TrEMBL record:
<keyword id="KW-0521">NADP</keyword>
<comment type="pathway">
    <text>Carbohydrate biosynthesis; dTDP-L-rhamnose biosynthesis.</text>
</comment>
<dbReference type="GO" id="GO:0019305">
    <property type="term" value="P:dTDP-rhamnose biosynthetic process"/>
</dbReference>
<dbReference type="InterPro" id="IPR029903">
    <property type="entry name" value="RmlD-like-bd"/>
</dbReference>
<dbReference type="GO" id="GO:0005829">
    <property type="term" value="C:cytosol"/>
</dbReference>
<dbReference type="GO" id="GO:0008831">
    <property type="term" value="F:dTDP-4-dehydrorhamnose reductase activity"/>
</dbReference>
<keyword id="KW-0560">Oxidoreductase</keyword>
<comment type="similarity">
    <text>Belongs to the dTDP-4-dehydrorhamnose reductase family.</text>
</comment>
<comment type="function">
    <text>Catalyzes the reduction of dTDP-6-deoxy-L-lyxo-4-hexulose to yield dTDP-L-rhamnose.</text>
</comment>
<dbReference type="Pfam" id="PF04321">
    <property type="entry name" value="RmlD_sub_bind"/>
</dbReference>
<dbReference type="InterPro" id="IPR036291">
    <property type="entry name" value="NAD(P)-bd_dom_sf"/>
</dbReference>
<dbReference type="InterPro" id="IPR005913">
    <property type="entry name" value="dTDP_dehydrorham_reduct"/>
</dbReference>
<feature type="domain" description="RmlD-like substrate binding">
    <location>
        <begin position="11"/>
        <end position="300"/>
    </location>
</feature>
<protein>
    <recommendedName>
        <fullName>dTDP-4-dehydrorhamnose reductase</fullName>
        <ecNumber>1.1.1.133</ecNumber>
    </recommendedName>
</protein>
Length: 309
C-alpha cells in the first residue's frame, strides 16, 4: 500500500435481496467495499448466524435492510417476527458497538398508532397497533440500548422494482380485473427504495468523511407530499395506461372504500405521514414529491413488462 493510501471501508448490507437492499448495493458501491448478504446467506432469525457474520466480515458500516415484513402474517407468527425485527437488530448493534462500527437500521411508520392529526415527528411517542409495529419498535430500542453509533431511519409505504409491494400489486390487479376497491382513509407518502438508498448514501458518505456526520438517533425518511391508497392506485393505473401498458381496470373503475370495509389481520395506522424536517436539515437536502419516485418505477415497469408477470 502506497503512502497515504487507505483501505476501502467494508460496508455490510443485510437483506440484500429485498427492495431496499438491492438499491443499497447500488448506492454504496462508490463508498466502500460492499459485502451484501441475503436471507439464505444469513438468517436474521438465528442470532448465531448474525454474530458469526459480523465477526467474519468486520464491517465499518452495517446497513440492516433485512426484516420480517409480512404485516398480517406477523399477527400469528409473532415469535419469528420478534426474532428478526427485534432481537437481530440488537445482536447487530452490540457487535457494531464492540467494533466501533456504524449501524444504519430501517424502521417504519407502523410504530405509531396513526391517531395524530398531523405528521409524526421523531419526538412523538410510538404506540404501535400491530405485532409488526411492536417488533419494529422493539428493534429500534435494542439498537439504541446497545450504546454504539447508529442511525435509525423510519420510512413509509416503501416500493421498488424488487420484492412485493402495493404498487406492483395494484399494477398486476389492474391488468386483469375490471374494477378495484381501495381504501381511501389511510394517508401517507409512497417512498421509493431508491430514495431510501440515496439518502442513506449521503449519510454514510458524511460519516466516513467525518464531514458533519449525523448525530446518533432516529430520523424520518420519506418522500414529500401525501396521498391515500385510493388516490395512489388511481395514479398508478393512469400512469401505466398513458405509458401504453394495457390495463383492464379504468381509472374511473377504482372505487374508494373505508378501512373498515377491508378488514385485515393487522390494524394499520390511519395517519402514516412522517415529518422529515430533522433529516432534511441535517443533510442539507430536500426530498422529492412522492409522485416522482412512483412515476420513475412505473415507467421502468412499462419498459419491462415482465416485472408484472
Amino acid at each position: 500500500m502506497s503512502k497515504g493510501e487507505r483501505t476501502a471501508p467494508v460496508i455490510l448490507i443485510t437483506g440484500a435481496g429485498g427492495q431496499v437492499g438491492t438499491e443499497l448495493i447500488r448506492g454504496m458501491s462508490l463508498l466502500g467495499r460492499v459485502v451484501a448478504v441475503t436471507r439464505s446467506e444469513c438468517d436474521l432469525g438465528r442470532s448465531e448466524q448474525v454474530e458469526s457474520m459480523m465477526n467474519e466480515v468486520g464491517p465499518a458500516v452495517i446497513l440492516n435492510a433485512g426484516g420480517y415484513t409480512e404485516v398480517d402474517r406477523a399477527e400469528s407468527d409473532s415469535v419469528i417476527a420478534h426474532r428478526v425485527n427485534a432481537e437481530a437488530p440488537g445482536v447487530l448493534a452490540r457487535a457494531a458497538s464492540r467494533m466501533d462500527a456504524l449501524l444504519v437500521h430501517y424502521s417504519t411508520d407502523y410504530v405509531f398508532s396513526g391517531e395524530k392529526a398531523t405528521a409524526y415527528t421523531e419526538e412523538d411517542e410510538p404506540n404501535p397497533l400491530s405485532v409488526y409495529g411492536e417488533s419494529k419498535l422493539a428493534g429500534e430500542r435494542a439498537v439504541m440500548e446497545a450504546g454504539g453509533k447508529h442511525y435509525i431511519f423510519r420510512t413509509s409505504w416503501v416500493f421498488g422494482l424488487r420484492g412485493a409491494n402495493f404498487l406492483k400489486s395494484i399494477a398486476r390487479a389492474a391488468r386483469t380485473r375490471d374494477a378495484l376497491s381501495v381504501v381511501a382513509d389511510q394517508f401517507g407518502a409512497p417512498t421509493s427504495a431508491a430514495l431510501v438508498a440515496d439518502v442513506t448514501a449521503l449519510a454514510v458518505r458524511a460519516y466516513l468523511r467525518d464531514d458533519r456526520p449525523l448525530a446518533n438517533g432516529v430520523y424520518h425518511l420519506a418522500a414529500s407530499g401525501e396521498t391515500n391508497w385510493y388516490d395512489y392506485s388511481r395514479f398508478i393505473v393512469d400512469t401505466l395506461s398513458r405509458a401504453g401498458v394495457p390495463m383492464s381496470t379504468a381509472v374511473d373503475a377504482i372505487r374508494s372504500i373505508g378501512a373498515a370495509d377491508y378488514p385485515t389481520a393487522a390494524r394499520r395506522p390511519a395517519n402514516s405521514r412522517l415529518d422529515t424536517s430533522k433529516l432534511r436539515k441535517a443533510l442539507g437536502v430536500e426530498f422529492p414529491q412522492w409522485e416522482a419516485g412512483v412515476r420513475d418505477v412505473l415507467l421502468q415497469i412499462a419498459a419491462s413488462k415482465d416485472v408484472l408477470q
